[in-house]
Design goal:
By secondary structure, the protein is mainly alpha-helical. It is 62% helix and 0% strand. The chain has a domain of 57 residues. It has 3 helices and no strands.
Length: 96
Amino acid sequence: MWIVAVAWIYVVALMAATEPTIVHGLMTFVFYCALPLSIVFYLTGSKRRRARREAQARNATAGSAGDGGVPAMAGGKSCATDDAGCDGGDGGGGGD
């Protein structure tokens, strides 16, 4: 896919270079290259974006359900098993 995009950019850049004015060249490049390629890459990337979003949702639900919904502290310890607690580290465990 990338080689096709690079080849298309090259062709359109040569087309834009042959335009009589700089404005015509820029408009040719934008409307024949930048706009169509951005649409194509957006459409072809939708499957990857959907898969990434689903993977993040799975990781979020697995992460919260995996340790009983207790957030983890730095160092990988769970707040439920640490005496310092996750309430700011006052040492009381948050259970007054």
